[in-house]
Amino acid sequence: MLEPGExxxxxxxxxxxxxxxxxxxxxxxASAMMSGGGMAVIPVPTPMYLAMTDRRIFVFRANPTxxxxxxxxxxxxxxxxxxSQVKERLLNSSFVISAPDDEQGVKITxxxxxxxxxxxxxxxxxxxx
Length: 129
Known about the structure:
The chain is an alpha+beta fold. It has helices at residues 21-34, 115-124; strands at residues 8-15, 47-53, 56-63, 68-77, 82-83, 87-88, 92-98, 106-111. The chain has a 4-stranded antiparallel sheet. Strands 5, 6, 7 and 8 form a 4-stranded antiparallel sheet that branches. Strand 6 (87-88) and strand 7 form a beta hairpin.
């Protein structure tokens, strides 16, 4: 998968999707009502492994049982990528990466314990201008 001379710089667990707070609260309330108050189900984004090399970013689906990469989902060339400002929250932080000529971006959410990895990735991707 790596090209000759390509070096892995960072590996971390991230989330690449988000669920709105209102939708999560409504879903939890509905599941609690349907079970007679005995259970509440809260949807959780699927954790992903992100590996950044000196040339590319790889994303793999994480196996939640065995804590290992399961399926390669995407490869994003680093050349030309830019990022948004880091958004800090109490339990996580995030930023969006995109190509300057692309209208779509990928929101990467880092858990609280992943701030060191987030800082390493943010340091090599320039801010969008």
